[in-house]
């Protein structure tokens, strides 16, 4: 007979025999397989989106000086850019973007084998980005778009007029918020003639795909274990967690 037990952080959960558990697990496996196929189809549709040719000559400040958007491809045909919330004068980058960024160094060796490179771009000047990056111990390519339209064109930085209006153009709609920076990810393709195309951008929950910690936690009994009203109030810079 199934019993109900209460564990730390989990209220009234069933405890059953291995045989009973296996029956339920197989039922869920059917749903998981359907979800995997639906996810594969969504990825296919993402790849099938039309492209937009980049018309502006975006220039960024990098560790070795000025670089263009084309330079960021580094010999590859595909580029992923994470739009990191770090505005001029902030001092430190966004702690939540930092949570995401803790995962980035591990992927570069692998995505490079699939004709793809990766960069992080923020609007803060490079002199403000550099000490924070060093503190965090990150190695990925991080550039400043200070003085460029790049962040504004991709709707992750907002003008004083937009902020004053309280309705920001974000995630393909309008959100009621007064903030100068938000997060996102964008994908680009460069053809053999050097033409660059914007192929995809995602914001808000769309960037969850880039957070390996969440994917790990989703396998556990407690899951992400977050406060629904403040889902990331537990997140700290990785050098600020209590051990």
Short description, anyone?
With 243 residues, this protein is α+β, with helices and mostly antiparallel strands. The protein has helices at residues 18-47, 95-101, 108-111, 126-136, 150-153, 160-165, 212-217; strands at residues 3-7, 10-15, 52-53, 59-62, 65-68, 78-83, 116-122, 142-144, 167-170, 173-176, 184-190, 196-203.
Annotation keywords:
243 residues, alpha+beta, 6-stranded mixed sheet, two-stranded antiparallel ribbon, 7 helices, 12 strands, globular
Task: Please describe what this structure looks like.
The radius of gyration is 21 Å and the shape is globular. The strands form four sheets. Strands 3-12-11-6-7-8 form a six-stranded mixed beta sheet. The protein is of the alpha+beta class and 243 residues long. It is built from seven helices and twelve strands.
Globular, elongated, flat, extended or rod-shaped: what is the shape? globular
DSSP summary: helix tally:
7
Major sheet characteristics: 6 strands, mixed
Helical content band: 25-40%
Instruction: State mean pLDDT (0 to 100 scale).
Output: 93
Which strand order do you get reading across the main beta sheet?
Answer: 3-12-11-6-7-8
What's the gyration radius in Å? 21 Å
What order do the SSEs take from the amino end to the carboxyl end, as H and E?
Answer: EEHEEEEHHEHEHHEEEEH
Sheet-strand content, in percent, reads 15-25%
**Terminal CA distance:** 40 Å
**How does the helix and strand content classify structurally?**
alpha+beta
């Amino acid at each position: 007979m199934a019993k109900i037990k209460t564990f730390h952080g989990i209220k009234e959960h069933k405890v059953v025999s291995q045989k009973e558990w296996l029956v339920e697990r197989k039922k869920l496996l059917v749903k998981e397989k359907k979800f995997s196929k639906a996810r594969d189809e969504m990825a296919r549709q993402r790849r099938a989106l039309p492209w937009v040719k980049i018309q502006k000559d975006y220039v960024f400040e990098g560790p070795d000086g000025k670089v263009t958007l084309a330079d960021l491809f580094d010999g590859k045909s595909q580029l992923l850019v994470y739009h990191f919330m770090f505005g001029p004068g902030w001092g430190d980058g966004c702690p939540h973007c930092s949570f995401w960024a803790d995962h980035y160094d591990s992927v570069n060796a692998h995505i490079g084998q699939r004709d793809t490179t990766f960069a992080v771009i923020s609007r803060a000047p490079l002199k403000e980005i550099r000490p924070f990056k060093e503190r965090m111990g990150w190695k990925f390519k991080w550039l400043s778009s200070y003085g460029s339209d790049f962040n504004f064109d991709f709707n992750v930085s907002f003008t004083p007029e937009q902020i004053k209006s309280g309705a920001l153009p974000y995630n393909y709609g309008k959100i009621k918020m007064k903030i100068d920076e938000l997060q996102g990810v964008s994908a680009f393709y460069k053809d053999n003639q050097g033409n660059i195309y914007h192929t995809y951008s995602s914001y808000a929950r769309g960037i969850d795909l880039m957070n390996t910690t969440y994917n790990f936690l989703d396998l556990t009994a407690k899951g992400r274990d977050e406060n629904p009203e403040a889902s990331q109030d537990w997140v700290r810079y990785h050098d600020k967690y209590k051990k």
